[in-house]
């Protein structure tokens, strides 16, 4: 995969495309929450036991947390009839409302821009959901279950994760060097991107697809009609570029929302009566099972001053419990973007892998190279390789995220425009970080319906859609992407895409991409010492 994405033949060249931040860097170790009126660095091993203990005992955000953690063992299990509940309800019940409102809500602001009292615990916290009732005989709580796994050197992984890992090893067995390289890189990396940003992933994929003779790309072409003929199990697709004709295909892959898919499948009054018509059950499951989404305003600020009074780290998140006077803009969090792009590189160069003598020479001649990086690399030896970061100018970059679930129900005209959003972001930075300088550059962009919200009952809703898709379209419609997979990350999308291509290649028409939502979750115990994998014998029946 790395070779394909890099457009090069060797694993060494593939490294040029990936920009990883090592696990020991501040952006990997230092994560902050803002509460109630200042930044709080979250405990981590690098800070040491005494510093972490002081933070836990002195910061208001952790008030009562330790006692609730110890008391979790004696909390009663949920009812066996409970199919799902919100993240906020689950955490409040097991660990107390302060943990939910002060800590967990901030995390879900950063990932989903969502309200923990609407998001599904079973979908977004599946391991915790499972562990609560894993051992019903003893019923000794989630924390004890986790402690037992750690002491026995075991990992508890979902069945689909283990299945994917085993398939990847098998599929990539002919390219062991590439797979081993990927494992080494990711084991040392906390954050990764590409040299020109994540958009470079799209560029690589687009170039690769264009090079395949059996791939036809039709950008900016509106699909007018999608119909299925059950007699030959083929789809006919009519597009805006060909109003008088259509083409036939064996499969349809949908990455749009369930509600949009329902619109495409709804027959018009001019529909071909010889084609199959979707059942009312399918249309209803798509329309009623569609998760809502939220709008997020992302404001990027660039300051010429590289030494602003900002702590080293990834950034900070803002919990729902912060007083409104400390966050009237309803910001979700701030990313210290200068920390996540790596050391700056020489002018007009995205990346270069060079030996240290050359690096030392360039470091002496080019003042834009990070001198600390040069010195650190020189201390490591004479044959190290360097990946250069994205930035080519000194300064400080910040990204402010505003809105999300706080704007749910707002009309379009109520949302802030670009200039208003920039002023809001500057106010957040001034109040929280005491930065009074004006940014040299500022850009705001409203990401409309950017992040699906996996509400309570999401899993059962997806199971119903799967069953109806198989019944009405014989498994010829596959779905993937954030709307369907219960995850919004790039990794989730890559995983879904890989599995979808396998389903089509193998003609697994009983699978739509939602089949794992049917029935109870399966869990696998993996022995970290021997890598022996067994289905968890205690899993809920």
TrEMBL record:
Domain Amine oxidase, chain residue ranges per copy: 28-306
Keyword Oxidoreductase: yes
Single biological process term from Gene Ontology: protoporphyrinogen IX biosynthetic process
Major localization class: mitochondrion
Needed cofactors: FAD
Subcellular location: Mitochondrion inner membrane
Domain of life from the UniProt record: Eukaryota
Designated name of the protein: Protoporphyrinogen oxidase
NCBIfam families: proto_IX_ox (TIGR00562)
Pathway annotation: Porphyrin-containing compound metabolism; protoporphyrin-IX biosynthesis; protoporphyrin-IX from protoporphyrinogen-IX: step 1/1
Organism: Lithohypha guttulata
Cofactor annotation remark: Binds 1 FAD per subunit.
Family: Belongs to the protoporphyrinogen/coproporphyrinogen oxidase family. Protoporphyrinogen oxidase subfamily.
InterPro entries hit by this protein: Amino_oxidase (IPR002937), FAD/NAD-bd_sf (IPR036188), Protoporphyrinogen_oxidase (IPR004572), Zeta_carotene_desat/Oxidored (IPR050464)
Role: Catalyzes the 6-electron oxidation of protoporphyrinogen-IX to form protoporphyrin-IX.
Catalytic activity field: protoporphyrinogen IX + 3 O2 = protoporphyrin IX + 3 H2O2
UniProt keyword annotations, A-Z: FAD, Flavoprotein, Heme biosynthesis, Oxidoreductase, Porphyrin biosynthesis
GO CC, alphabetical: mitochondrial inner membrane
Pfam families: Amino_oxidase (PF01593)
Entry-linked SUPFAM superfamilies: FAD-linked reductases, C-terminal domain (SSF54373), FAD/NAD(P)-binding domain (SSF51905)
Gene name tied to this protein: HEM14
Annotated GO MF terms: oxygen-dependent protoporphyrinogen oxidase activity
EC number: 1.3.3.4
């Amino acid at each position: 995969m790395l070779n394909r994405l890099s457009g090069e033949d060797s694993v060494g060249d593939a490294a040029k495309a990936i920009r990883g931040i090592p696990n020991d860097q501040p952006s990997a170790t230092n994560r902050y929450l803002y509460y109630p009126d200042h930044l709080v660095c979250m405990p981590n091993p690098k800070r040491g036991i005494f510093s972490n203990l002081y933070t836990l005992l002195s910061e208001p955000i952790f008030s009562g947390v330790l006692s609730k953690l110890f008391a979790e063992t004696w909390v009663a299990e949920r009812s066996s009839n409970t199919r799902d509940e919100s993240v906020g309800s689950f955490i409040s019940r097991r660990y107390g409302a302060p943990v939910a409102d002060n800590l967990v809500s901030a995390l879900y602001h950063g990932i989903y821009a969502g309200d923990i009292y609407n998001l599904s615990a079973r979908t977004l916290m599946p391991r915790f959901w499972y562990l609560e009732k894993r051992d019903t005989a003893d019923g000794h709580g989630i924390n004890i279950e986790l402690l037992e796994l750690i002491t026995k050197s075991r990992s508890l992984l979902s069945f689909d994760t283990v299945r994917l890992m085993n398939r990847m090893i098998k599929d990539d067995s002919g390219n062991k060097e590439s797979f081993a390289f990927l494992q080494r890189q990711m084991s040392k990396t906390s954050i990764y991107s590409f040299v020109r940003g994540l958009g470079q992933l799209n560029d690589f994929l687009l170039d690769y697809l264009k090079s395949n003779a059996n791939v036809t790309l039709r950008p900016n072409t509106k699909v007018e009609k999608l119909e299925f003929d059950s007699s030959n199990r083929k789809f006919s697709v009519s597009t805006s570029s060909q109003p008088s004709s259509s083409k036939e295909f064996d499969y349809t892959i949908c990455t749009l929302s369930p509600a949009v898919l329902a619109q495409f499948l709804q027959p018009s009054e001019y529909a071909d009566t010889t084609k199959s018509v979707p059942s009312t059950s399918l249309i209803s499951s798509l329309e009623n099972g569609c998760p809502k989404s939220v709008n997020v305003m992302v404001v990027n600020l660039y300051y010429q001053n590289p030494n602003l009074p900002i702590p080293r780290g990834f950034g900070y998140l803002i919990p729902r419990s912060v007083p409104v006077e400390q966050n009237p803009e309803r910001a979700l969090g701030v990313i210290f973007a200068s920390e996540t792009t790596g050391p700056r590189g020489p002018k007009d160069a995205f990346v270069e892998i060079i030996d240290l003598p050359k690096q030392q020479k360039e470091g002496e001649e080019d003042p834009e190279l990070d001198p600390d990086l040069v010195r650190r690399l020189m201390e490591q030896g004479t044959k190290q390789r360097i990946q250069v970061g994205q930035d080519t100018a000194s300064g400080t970059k910040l990204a402010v995220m505003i809105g999300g679930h706080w704007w749910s129900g707002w009309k379009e005209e109520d949302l802030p425009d670009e200039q208003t959003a920039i002023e809001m972001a500057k106010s957040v930075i001034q109040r929280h970080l005491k930065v009074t300088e004006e940014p040299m550059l500022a850009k705001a962009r409203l990401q409309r319906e950017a992040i699906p919200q996996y509400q309570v009952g999401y899993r059962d809703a997806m199971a119903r859609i799967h069953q109806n898709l198989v019944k009405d379209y014989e498994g010829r419609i596959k779905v993937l992407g954030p709307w369907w997979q219960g995850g919004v990350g790039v990794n989730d999308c890559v995983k879904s895409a890989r599995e979808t291509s396998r389903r089509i290649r193998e003609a697994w028409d009983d699978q739509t991409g939602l089949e794992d939502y049917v029935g109870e979750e399966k869990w696998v115990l993996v022995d970290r010492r021997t890598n022996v994998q067994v289905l968890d014998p205690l899993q809920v029946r």
